[in-house]
Amino acid sequence: MQRIILFLLWLTGTTLAATAQQATVSGIIKDAATREPMPFVNISLLTTSDTSLVKATITAEQGRFQLQNVRQGSYLLMASYLGYQPHYLPVRVGELNPFLDLGTIALTSNARKLNEVTIAGKAAIVSPKMDKKTFSITDNVSQTGGSVLAAMKNLPGITVTSDGKLQLRGSEQVMVLVDGQQTALTGFGGQSSLDNIPASAIDRIEIINNPSARYDANGNAGIINIIYKKEKKEGFNGKAGITTGLGALWIKQDNYPGIRPQYQRTPKVNPSLSLNYRKGKVNFFLQGDYLYNQTLNKNEFVDRFYEDGTVVKQQTKRNRTTNVGTLKAGADWNLSSQDNFSVSALYTREHILDRGDEPFFNKDLSQRLRLWQFLEDEMKTTFTASTAWQHRFAQPGRVLNAGFNYTFHREDEKYFFTNFMPAFIGLDSFKLLSDEHVADFNLDYIQPLHYGRFETGVKFRKRSIPVNMQFKPGENSPLDVNAGGWADYSEVIPAVYGNYILEKEHVEVEAGLRVEYVKIDYKVNPNHPTYKSDGYEYTQPFPNLRLAYKLNEDNKFSLFYNRRVDRPNEVDIRIFPKYDDAEIIKVGNPGLRPQYTNTFELAYKTDWSKGFLSTSIYHKRMDATITRIASTVPGSTLIYNIFQNAGKSYNTGTEMLLSHQLTPWATLGLNLNGYQHIMDAFTVVNLYPVENTFSAPRQSMFSGNVKLNGTFHFPHALEGQLTAIYQAPDLVPQGKTYARFSIDMGVKKGIQHGRGELFANVTDVANTLVNKKEVNGNGFRYVSTDYYETQVLRVGYSYKF
Length: 801
Prior knowledge:
Elements: H1 2-10, E1 22-31, E2 42-47, E3 53-58, E4 64-71, E5 73-80, E6 87-93, E7 99-107, E8 133-136, H2 148-152, E9 158-160, E10 166-168, E11 174-178, E12 202-208, E13 222-228, E14 235-247, E15 266-279, E16 282-306, E17 311-334, E18 339-361, E19 368-392, E20 399-420, E21 425-449, E22 452-472, E23 485-503, E24 507-524, E25 534-552, E26 555-566, H3 570-573, E27 584-587, E28 595-608, E29 611-623, E30 626-631, E31 639-645, E32 649-663, E33 666-679, E34 682-686, E35 692-696, E36 699-714, E37 718-727, E38 730-732, E39 735-737, E40 740-751, E41 756-763, E42 771-777, E43 780-786, E44 792-800
Parallel strand pairs: 1-7, 11-13, 27-31
Antiparallel strand pairs: 1-4, 2-3, 2-5, 5-6, 8-12, 9-10, 12-13, 14-15, 14-44, 15-16, 16-17, 16-43, 17-18, 18-19, 19-20, 20-21, 21-22, 22-23, 23-24, 24-25, 25-26, 26-28, 28-29, 29-32, 30-31, 32-33, 33-36, 34-35, 36-37, 37-40, 38-39, 39-42, 40-41, 41-44, 42-43
């Protein structure tokens, strides 16, 4: 019972941002007989209840009119002109379409009696769409001053693994965008770089569980869109802040004997500055952040058990020091009333120093078998440049968008190893240089319709990643020096899409189709002892469909379907072994192929005066599931973790998101997600370091997570937040993860007449968050428990000017 209560206490997500939908209603008035446009026609928007006037305007010279900032609801539009009969037209403003085109309205002198039109309407209390949930970072008090990655773990439906990967509904196949663009900083491989983006620079985060055809087809779990802040006020303004903190306040688990101490009371310092100048048609913005961060990045204890009775105990302790500088700048320019041009650039330089110790002992720790110490000196440089042009036609909402985005990402890694063996000491090293170039061009067109809109567009991507690995072996080196050399990855993806949205009083339809052609080439050093050049290509359709029925303004059912793909990332197929763990070694697989996913979901949402409830039932079917498989080779205790396509898997579950204002000063949020995770039996052949076959039986487990979130508004501009999170045991290939639990809390106070703000927070208050998993292979099993740094105390101050 206690575990159930803790599970319920954990899932309070974060309050959904709620802003009432507003729209622009437009059309053309023409003479019914001559079909000539009619200027100076009176246009009135009336309520359906008592025909009171809401908004009014007159048509322009070409007969066009537009009514802006019309709130959600049902109305009557009346067009009247001297000598013509008034024309009445029902108008429905929903939550999906910011522009409604009523088309051509013909006025005639023929007298007609208008039948009574009765359309009940009431503005929605909460406006988030069921396929997109928007969360304000400002409201996430318990993570103020932390990173975007840390802030995300408190959002409904999102979990974060120990190696910095995001999960939506239990799946790691998540596409992360920054301001709607996929970049090397966040979206092509793991998302650990999000831990270096300060949450203070972010305005909001969008979660899209069922993306439409206008989004790239990859990411079966969904899309997370991170939107940077951009000031809209006239003149010069900005914000400056400073955050400092301490982590690893006490030792969770003592070291094995004979290694260097763990980092303790690790310092964190994060100054930030945001500047904005808006004058007339031009807006300039600049955001800068610097982060100095020490962390106990890993403190993992692994017990390995082999069929012959051999037991190996190991610890991987990694003390990390990180220096990150981030600069984002750009300008928006209104060339005319119809054209807008914007340009922006993002530059990040991240320097990482890892000092690691990895001792290996026998069963009772009486004999040290080996000590593997390493120093990793890594520099990551990312540069992204974006340009965008938008043309607005005379018809409101009809727009043409063109954009170009270029990303360069360099990984310059140097590893230095000291291998302490009973009979000798070996010195080994290697250097890896990887340059990633990504160029995206997109053209999108939106045509508003009377009851919706049509979207279409094209996109072209070219991506290349040359990688070079050079091993420098020492005496009796354990490194696979023959696996070095070069490898070149290239990717070309042209795509075209169309998406239609219909919204009426009770019915919504969204139907789209995206077609992508993909060509992947992976050329490797011909002298590589195991892998050869490989690649694949395909042309595939990716449809999406959403059907919704509104019982009334406050209750709606939705049915979703989409098909998506997850292409292997370059790091998934990278041929070079990774030695940050000397005896559980990660290796890529050039033979890896895409994973396809079909998703079905039924959802229901209801609103009331002080909150809302959103529930859904979903089912995902994955083909050629991408995952790591652990295996050994005869005569060795080394374990190789190699990416493989592990056959079919399924994820069937239910999710609930509840928010309710208990009192004027307290709001409670609850997010429940439970799912049955199934992996069918499969057999794979691992080629590295020698060919071996692994088979696994069908596996099944029920898992889920709970988030409980309380936000509090006290007198004197004081706010507080308490978030509890519980993650149930989950299925992984060959094994499972164990349950984990944490509590975050924070407070902030406005000062200096609202311009200044003080805050303090603590993550993982009770220091209970531990990642534990068990893996079973052919002839071995191991249990790992990672006591890495999770408890961090932060204080900070910011000032708006």
